[in-house]
């Protein structure tokens, strides 16, 4: 039986209560858990309305505030990790959580954002039916507006494609999605991983995705055709923390290796409804202004010293007038590699700089591709990450073979033989041999050194 968790901070309580009721009345759900960021207004109002809702449902509905577990900003990561610990211990007395609430160990935990207006019981059913087929991780994926998900596309998908091109990670549809179901086996893996438990901020979704893949958990992505309608943000500035924390989480993983021998299935998608294709994800006019804000001399210096000159010139010119034509896909990849090598988490100049670089990238994509229609824009995004993945994969395979001592001349004839050998250096993993790790690799793979 399953536990459904809604992490929340400040949300519309009507939406939250409707979602809690949907979950509590689902036949597979044994209990519902609300984990609040603090005892804020939303928390207090939910508390007042829970007894009435509880009377209409047969399963326990528990609300709590998140524990301080991690080492970074107190955010959604602490909320989700609190839920994982609770899930493991809900059937027995526990010092942290008190008396047991259920009699048997819970088998699965589902997470859904509390602010989803299109949530319904089929989301739980789809995940449960997939879990019945013995997948460890079930992720929901959705059709999204072409201007939505710009952290997912420009940061996480680009990063996974660059750093782990042969693993399952570039294939994960929505690697930052907060809607997922995990088995007890998978939760055991996550809570015993220190990297996960310290990630108290927005980086938590990146860590769950990465660690599940690294541990070889079998994954399926189920499709939710109606899409995720949820509380909207205004300008891109609202995404400042999420951007920085999601990038920093990925940067922290860049030296990790990952094998890719787990199963990954993706349920097929369906035609995208007009409600999604016609939606604008962010306010363009408000975002143009962001390029001229919060400049310091040090940001200019960092640009001149570390980035290509056309990027430095283009971005600094934004102090007077917004520009974005310089930040095409190839330039973004160059900047991304500079950021991977040099970005300093916790340094306010670096935070502002990555934010402005990303805003110029999002505006460039919007003005060059989004205006040509939904399908064109989505194709451009897909091609961008596919190209990165392919180039990076080729570099990785080449470097690995060189490290193994294959001269380029014998590569072609050796290729088939190597593919059939299930050695510790599987071609379909991103693991480096120890000799490879010690070598400087030119170009795109300089992260491996
Ligand atoms: N307990 C707790 N503590 N919940 C939080 C906190 C926190 O500090 N901050 C946010 N939440 C809740 C929030 O109330 C909502 O239910 C959910 O987490 C997601 O937050 P929202 O502001 O709606 O995020 P948004 O913009 O929809 O973000 C999406 O991308 C995130 C990401 O990119 O990392 C969403 O899919 C998130 O689940 C995902 O983490
Ligand atoms: Mg939301």
TrEMBL record:
Coiled coil: none annotated. InterPro entries: MGS_C (IPR054143), MGS_GT (IPR054145), Nucleotide-diphossugar_trans (IPR029044). Residues 276-385 form the Mannosylglycerate synthase C-terminal domain. It comes from the Eukaryota. Residues 3-251 form the Mannosylglycerate synthase GT domain. Pfam families: MGS_C, MGS_GT. This is Mannosylglycerate synthase. It comes from Porphyridium purpureum.
């Amino acid at each position: 039986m399953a536990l459904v968790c809604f992490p929340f901070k400040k949300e519309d309580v009507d939406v939250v209560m409707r979602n809690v009721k949907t979950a509590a009345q689902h036949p597979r759900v044994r209990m519902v858990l609300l984990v609040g960021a603090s005892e804020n207004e939303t928390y207090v109002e939910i508390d007042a309305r829970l007894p009435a809702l509880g009377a209409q449902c047969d399963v326990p509905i528990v609300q709590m505030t998140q524990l301080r577990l991690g080492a970074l900003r107190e955010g959604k990561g602490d909320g989700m990790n609190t839920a994982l610990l609770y899930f493991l211990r809900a059937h027995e007395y526990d010092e942290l959580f008190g008396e047991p609430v259920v009699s048997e160990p819970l088998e699965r935990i589902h997470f859904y954002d509390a602010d989803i207006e299109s949530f319904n019981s089929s989301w739980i059913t789809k995940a449960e039916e997939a879990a019945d087929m013995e997948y460890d991780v079930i992720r929901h994926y959705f059709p999204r507006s072409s201007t939505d998900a710009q952290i997912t596309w420009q940061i996480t998908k680009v990063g996974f494609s660059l750093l782990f091109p042969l693993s399952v990670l570039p294939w994960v549809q929505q690697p930052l999605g907060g809607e997922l179901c995990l088995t007890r086996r998978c939760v055991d893996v996550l809570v015993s991983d220190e990297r996960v438990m310290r990630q108290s901020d927005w980086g938590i979704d990146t860590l769950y995705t990465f660690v599940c893949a690294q541990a070889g958990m079998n994954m399926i992505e189920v499709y939710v055709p109606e899409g995720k309608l949820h509380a909207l943000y205004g300008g891109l500035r609202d995404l400042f923390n999420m951007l920085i924390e999601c990038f920093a989480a990925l940067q922290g993983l860049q030296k990790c290796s990952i094998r890719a021998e787990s199963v990954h299935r993706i349920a097929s998608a369906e035609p995208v409804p007009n409600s999604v294709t016609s939606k604008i994800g962010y306010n363009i006019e408000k975002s143009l202004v962001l390029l001229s804000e919060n400049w310091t001399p040090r940001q200019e210096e960092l640009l001149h010293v570390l980035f290509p000159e056309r990027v430095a010139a283009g971005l600094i010119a934004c102090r007077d007038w917004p520009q974005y034509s310089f930040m095409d896909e190839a330039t973004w990849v160059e900047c991304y590699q500079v950021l991977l090598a040099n970005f300093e988490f916790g340094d306010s100049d670096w935070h502002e700089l990555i934010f402005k670089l990303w805003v110029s990238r999002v505006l460039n994509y919007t003005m060059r591709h989004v205006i040509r229609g939904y399908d064109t824009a989505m194709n451009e995004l897909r091609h961008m990450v596919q190209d990165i993945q392919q180039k990076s994969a080729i570099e990785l395979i080449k470097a690995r073979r060189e490290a193994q001592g294959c001269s380029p001349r014998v590569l072609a004839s050796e290729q088939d033989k190597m593919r059939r050998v299930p050695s510790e250096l599987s071609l379909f993993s991103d693991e480096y041999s120890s000799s490879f790790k010690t070598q400087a690799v030119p170009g795109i793979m300089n992260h491996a050194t």
